[in-house]
Amino acid sequence: MFERIQQLPDPTTPAELAKALRITPASVRRAIKRGELRACQTSHRGDRRIQHSAILSWLNGDRTSPPPLASNTVAREPITPIDPWVLLDTPEVCVMVGKSRGTLWRWIRDDYFPEPDKVLPGGHKAWFRATVQNWIVHGMATPALRSARK
């Protein structure tokens, strides 16, 4: 998911952010209005732009606004593809484990796969890459072995 955010222009519009997060633009505007997401007004019409640092703070649950940035400051920090703290949405997790969405949610219901680490705006679920990788390496036990461990 953070890969999609890094591909957005910096600063980005609320509509572009909404499309990347797969939520409605109204959800982004509400977060800006409530002060949860910092945005700057770019024209007298009320057009807004959002810095990557503000987006990352919002997604990480940091409700304190970061200090204002100078106009020539680069706001984003590079996130490597192997960063274990990158959040993955449901389709990305399905690709990693090689199963369908239905199978993934059935495994969660049956306590075979870990619950999502975060609930993003719009109700979207996300897991840290480290959680999924840890499950792939250590947690892919058969149901009989799993019940014996409890």
UniProtKB/TrEMBL annotation:
Origin: domain of life: Bacteria
Pfam assignment, any one: HTH_17
Residues annotated as domain Helix-turn-helix: 13-61
SUPFAM superfamilies: Putative DNA-binding domain
Protein name: DNA binding domain, excisionase family
